[in-house]
């Protein structure tokens, strides 16, 4: 399978899986628990997250496609496993943070996710330098996300136990 065929299959799949993971708890602007939290000053507007993640998923999908296309390359099997592990961790973050409201656990998941993505990038670099470079914006974003997550944790002690009253209408 050529790189183009891999990319035409893998990139939409990764974007779709990322979208589905994000939908588990609904969009941030519709999540009443998230809206009730105190946000850090560096918090981007809610619309920036789907835009950033779509671009990042396209980049890492292209990087993964390059590795999948590198048949016979030493470390290819390890690179594929590492990518799948870090991507599974990535998909688990939104349900953990937005769905289960586990702010502290989500931060530590980001730390582990960054380590796995960093190792993935190093191994990608041994196979295809361009694939490693395509992972760099993702690594930078994970650092930024971890900072935001930690600040939200610090600004909202007990966020895990925060219960937002159900919406009600008054007649």
Descriptive notes:
The N and C termini lie far apart (62 Å). This protein has six helices and no strands. Helix content is 73%, strand content 0%. The radius of gyration is 18 Å and the shape is elongated. The longest helix is centred in the last third of the chain and has 27 residues, at 129-155. It is mostly helical. The chain has helices spanning 3-23, 32-36, 48-69, 76-99, 103-127, 129-155.
Write the layout of secondary structure elements.
Layout: H1 3-23, H2 32-36, H3 48-69, H4 76-99, H5 103-127, H6 129-155
- The percent range for strand residues is under 5%
Note the run of SSEs as H and E: HHHHHH
Mean pLDDT: 92
Structural category: mainly alpha
Number of strands: 0
Shape: elongated
| Helix fraction bin | over 70%
Distance between the termini: 62 Å
Low-confidence runs? none
Radius of gyration: 18 Å
| Largest sheet report | none
> Helical stretch count?
6
